[in-house]
């Protein structure tokens, strides 16, 4: 589901599955290694450039601009899911 309007009705589980797919495809990660508790930098070995790429892909997915402030405290996949869910509800 890539339609931004349809994205506003996604559950946190659906957001997680989409995020898992994006992370696996974009950063060549094993999807089974991506859990809600996975730390983006320690466990998934992403760096700051990867984080920018992820933010761009999330903008495409949600149809909303990802503000740096919204992702300032994001550390885990679960944090990303919760942040996206909040963004889509507002």
Salient structural properties:
Non-ribosomal Peptide Synthetase Peptidyl Carrier Protein, Chain A; 0% strand; mainly alpha; globular; 90 residues
Write the layout of secondary structure elements.
Blueprint: H1 4-7, H2 12-27, H3 48-62, H4 77-89
Helix pairs in contact: 2-3, 2-4
Description:
The chain is mainly alpha-helical and 90 residues long. Helix content is 53%, strand content 0%. It has four helices and no strands. The radius of gyration is 12 Å and the shape is globular. The mean pLDDT is 87.
Brief digest:
The chain is an all-alpha fold. The chain contains 4 helices and no strands.
CATH H-level homologous superfamily name = ACP-like
The shape is globular
> Roughly what is the average pLDDT, rounded to an integer?
87
**Rounded radius of gyration (Å):** 12 Å
Name the structural class: mainly alpha
Number of strands: 0
The H/E string reads: HHHH
Helix percentage: 40-55%
Largest sheet at a glance? none
CATH class: Mainly Alpha
Q: Give me the oligomer status.
A: single chain
End-to-end separation in angstroms reads 19 Å
Number of helices: 4
Relative strand content: under 5%
> Architecture in CATH?
Orthogonal Bundle
* Residue runs with pLDDT of under 50 for 5 or more positions: none
Could you say what the CATH topology is called? Non-ribosomal Peptide Synthetase Peptidyl Carrier Protein, Chain A
- What is the number of independent domains? 1
